Amino acid sequence: MLDDVRLELILDAAYACFTRHGVRRTTMDDIAREAGMSRPGVYQYVRNKQDAFRRLTTRLLDTSLSEARSAMTARGDLTERLTGVLEAKLRMVARLWQDSPAHAAELLGVDSRQSADLLEAYDAAMCDLLTSAVATARPDLAKADVGELAELLLAFTRGLEADLTDPHAPTRRLRHGIALFVAGLDHIHPKEAS
What we know:
By secondary structure, the chain is mainly α. The chain has 2 domains: 1-46, Arc Repressor Mutant, subunit A, CATH 1.10.10.60; 58-187, Tetracycline Repressor, domain 2. It has helices at residues 2-21, 28-35, 39-43, 49-73, 78-99, 104-107, 116-137, 143-160, 169-184. Helix 4 runs antiparallel to helix 5, helix 7 crosses helix 8 (143-160) and helix 8 packs antiparallel against helix 9 (169-184). The protein is elongated and about 60 Å long.
C-alpha cells in the first residue's frame, strides 16, 4: 500500500516536471526533488526517466479509458454515449495542453517511440468501445460500416484536438459532429438479411 502511494507521488512529480520542462529536459534529480525524495529512493520505484514517462502515460490513458467505459454504461441514446466516450479522450488531451502548452505534443507522445505502443492500444480500446456502442444501438448495420464509423469518430476527435485555443469549442464541436454522424446512420444501407 505504501509502495503504491510512493509510486503515485513519483508519477505526480514526473507529471509536474514533464509539463514544466518537457520530457527531454527533465532529469531524475528534478523528479526526485519534486517528489520530496532522494534520487536513490525514486529508483526503487522507477528504473529511469523513460520508465516514469511510460508509467505516467499508462496512468493517463487508463484514466481516460475508465471514464470512457463509464460513459458507455450511462443512460442515454447513442449520441450521448458516443459523445461521453470521446469527451473522455478530448478531456485528457485538453488537460495536457492546458497544463503544458509548450510540451503537450511531447507528452502526448505524438512522435515518441517510447509510448507508441501504449497509444496504439489506447486507440484500439477506444475504437472497440465506439464499435460496441454503435453495434448495440444499431444491430441492423453491417460490421464493416460500424467499424468504419468508429474509425471516423476517432479521426474526427483527433482533428478537434489540433486546436484547443478555445477550451469550450472542441467539446461543442464534438457534440455537434457526433449528432451529425448519428443522424447520417439512417442513410447507410442496413446489412442484408442472411
